Amino acid sequence: MARRGAYAKGVAKREEILTAALDVIARNGYRRTSVRELADAVGLSQAGLLHYFASKEELFQEILRKRDDVDMAAFDDEREHRIDGFFALIRHNSEVPGLVQLYAQVSTEACDPEHPAHAFFVERYEQFREIFGKLLREEQAAGNIDPDLDADRIANLFLAAADGLQTQWMLDPSIDMADHVAYLWHLVTRRD
User: Fold this and answer.
1) Which residue intervals are the DNA-binding region (predicted)?
2) For the chain, how many helices (H) and strands (E)?
3) Are residues 140 and 146 in contact, defined by beta-carbon separation less than 8 angstroms?
4) Rounded to two decimals, what is the model's pTM?
5) Which of 39, 79, 110, 136 would give a disulfide with 84, using CB separation of 3.0 to 4.6 Å?
6) Which residues of 146-175 are buried (b: 16+ CB within 10 A; e: fewer)?
7) Which CATH number fits domain 55-189: 1.20.810.10, 1.10.357.10, 3.40.50.20, 3.30.1340.30?
């Protein structure tokens, strides 16, 4: 029984680390946050913190996975139009620039098939395309989008637009990411 208790404590500590990391990185920024600061936030040494992860790269990947989980829970609510949750999520990103920086950095590094987060990002993009493609097909069925348009390709274009706008926003914070994505939605649906 002690083994199961130790495992549960390890899982709980790992969750505590990830939750604290979201806050620290969102507040300080990705480049200004060290592993030592993350460890200090949960009362561990750097070695103690990394004991819960196979590598520093896995730590950052799991921080991003936790971010996705938190974001989906916060913005996957019952709205009149499901797309509004997506716009709210993009709006929220402008409030957590450090996490946007982390995402941009790790996603770029993960383009290398040897990178530890490569599979995570491949899966993440597949999931996004599936979720967004489903939303677009529902809008097509409702008569809001031209049925001849390829929903999967449009989903991919929205993903590319959102990621590209994040990069532009990091360079010029006056860019309203959510407004631009909402405008793209309007162009596709011809609806506000």
Assistant:
1) 34-53
2) 9, 0
3) yes
4) 0.83
5) 79
6) eeeeebeebbbebeebbeebbeebeeeeee
7) 1.10.357.10
